[in-house]
Write a structure and sequence with these properties.
It is a single chain. This protein folds into two domains: 31 residues; 153 residues, Porin, CATH 2.40.160. Helices cover 19% and strands 61% of the residues. The longest helix is centred in the N-terminal third of the chain and has 26 residues. The chain is globular.
């Protein structure tokens, strides 16, 4: 009777050791490192428009075929902000952890904007803004992407295009998205 718990414990340790060895082999693969990407085009366009657009993509490989994607983002201006994140899965059909991929993502964001009335003073040629209301809404979307990624020892790059469906404050429509990210693998 006392031998049964010892046998179960030994089997458990054997399975754990084999699984640990497989995971260790995958961790040594260069494309199995977590990458954190910044989106330089969105950042530069936002800075040019004086609206910081901060997009980050975190890719955490689950295997050489699949990776978990988390894309937190923040838009901020004097008139409002949007904060939230996408969560999805990226699938590499070739099983190399890089190259062509397909991705499905869903996102949830909180949007808060000021309803602004703009009036023009014809006597002095000045534009004045009057804030009327603060409006807030939830933004939900589901997107499918087709893209390509390059992964090197010290830098990772990806670009993709997506189409999906999004709803903001009860109004839903077709959405399109383009992404370009430059990242660092850890």
């Amino acid at each position: 009777m006392k031998i049964l718990p010892k046998v179960i414990m030994l089997l458990f340790l054997a399975v754990f050791a084999v699984n640990a060895q497989e995971n260790q082999d995958l961790q040594l693969h260069p494309h199995m490192r977590t990458s954190v990407y910044l989106h330089p085009v969105a950042l530069l366009a936002g800075l040019n428009a004086k609206i910081p657009l901060i997009y980050v993509t975190v890719e955490n490989p689950l295997s050489l075929y699949n990776a978990l994607i988390v894309k937190p983002s923040v838009w901020a201006s004097a008139d409002g902000y949007r904060i939230g994140s996408d969560l999805g899965i990226r699938h590499y059909p070739a099983g190399r952890g890089e190259g062509m991929y397909l991705s499905l993502q869903a996102g949830g964001f909180y949007l808060s904007v000021d309803d602004i009335e703009i009036s023009f003073d014809f006597d002095f040629g000045e534009e004045t803004k009057k804030k009327r209301n603060k409006n807030s809404a939830w933004w939900f979307d589901a997107m499918g992407y087709f893209g390509y990624s390059y992964k090197y020892a010290y830098i990772s790059i990806y670009s993709d295009t997506g189409v999906g469906y999004g709803c903001v404050a009860g109004t839903c429509s077709l959405m399109f998205d383009l992404n370009f990210g430059i990242g660092i693998p850890f």
